[in-house]
Amino acid sequence: MSHTAHIPSHRKPRRSASKLALRAGVAGGVLGTIAVAGAAGPANAEPVTETIEMPTLGSLETGSGLASAVAASAEASQQEALDQSLQTQENLALQKAAKEAKKARAEADRKAAAEKAEKARLKAEAKAEQERKEAQERASRTSERTQLTSTSASGNSSDSGSSSGSSAGSNESQTQAPSGSAAAIVAFARAQVGDSYVTGGTGPNSWDCSGLVQAAYREAGIDLPRISYEQSSMGTSVSLDNLQPGDILYWGSRSGSYHVAIYVGGGNYVGAQNSSTGVVERSLDWDMPSGAVRLL
After folding, report:
1. pLDDT given for residue 72 in this prediction
2. What would you measure as the largest C-alpha separation in the chain, in angstroms?
3. How does pLDDT run across 245-276, given as a tens digit for each residue?
4. Under DSSP, is residue 260 helix (H, G, I), strand (E, B) or coil?
5. DSSP string, 101-149
6. What 8-state DSSP symbol labels residue 240?
7. Pick from 269, 282, 279: which is nearest to 195 by CA?
């Protein structure tokens, strides 16, 4: 092969500017060494008539383009890493918000359940209290009925010897009633509407049924017994179709009544009903009485 033949380069393509620069430096050093050696050779040395063609190292512009590509790739990698970091932070923020929302919802559900339970408890307590009051009222009326039954039984044994005396007492009560007394009785009874009901109450702001009737008749100058069955046993019986203001209405039997009220006219009566209603004015149809007596 000729010394001037082109020696092909079997090197792989250069991939970086740094390697190109290194190779350029090596080539420069080799050429410089050859030049020095030629200058230092003997004077009678034959002139060099052949040259060795060195491989081409490539253009510097190619190295500059590779450096730019490397920088662009690094910048793209950095931007991708930044985007991934931002995405990670966003995901963490969303997860945290979801946990807080779930916690807040659970707390709201807990409070709602507690409020519901408290309302149910208060409702149950109110119902129990109402049932207790109603039971006490029923027990009180049962006690009154028992007392009335016992008294009636003992009174029946002496009816034969005292019938004439009772008749005289009734007539005397009627003759003692002053003129216009019915108006005074009705006015007093209506003035107490709205007062509370208390077992054994005799005024001035709380009453039971017989306590109100007794106080109303006292306004007319008539003294009545304290117990309802004794009040309904006085005077004369009258039909419910022939009532007059001031008549005493009773529930139960006349000699064993458990509730009394005052007829005020117009188909209405005033009475101390119970602890739930207090003193009220009601129509006869609201609670039809068993009978009535007249003392005026």
Report:
1. 83
2. 189
3. 999 999 999 989 999 999 999 999 999 999 99
4. strand
5. HHHHHHHHHHHHHHHHHHHHHHHHHHHHHHHHHHHHHHHHHHHHHHHHH
6. G
7. 279
- Write out pLDDT tens, residues 88-125: 888 888 888 888 888 888 888 888 888 888 887 777 77
Bridge partners, 202 (sequence order): 207
Name the burial class of residue 170, with classes exposed (0-12), middle (13-18) and buried (19+) by CB atoms within 10 angstroms of its CB. middle
The neighbour count for residue 165, using CB atoms within 10 Å, is: 9
Task: Determine if the peptide bond prior to 204 is cis (ω within 30°).
Answer: yes
The dihedrals phi and psi of 61, each to the nearest 5 degrees, come to: -65, -35
Higher pLDDT, 170 or 205: 205
The tokens describing 132, both together, are 């207790």
Distance CA(271)–CA(208), nearest Å, equals 8
Q: Tokens 């009633």 belong to which residue?
A: 177
Inter-residue contact 70 to 19 (CB < 8 Å): no
Contact 178, 227 (CB under 8 A): no
Residue 187 is encoded by which pair of tokens?
Answer: 């006015």
For residue 91, the surrounding DSSP H or E stretch is helix 60-156
Distance set, CA 201 to CA 15, 46, 74, 276, 277 (Å): 115, 155, 100, 15, 15
Per-residue pLDDT of 183-197, as tens digits, reads 999 999 999 999 999
Distances (CA, A) of 95 to 81, 91, 101, 106: 21, 6, 10, 17
Residue whose tokens read 């009532």: 243
d(CA 227, CA 156): 18
Q: What's the rounded Cα separation, in Å, for the pair 293 and 213? A: 12
Q: Is 238 helix (H, G, I), strand (E, B) or coil?
A: strand
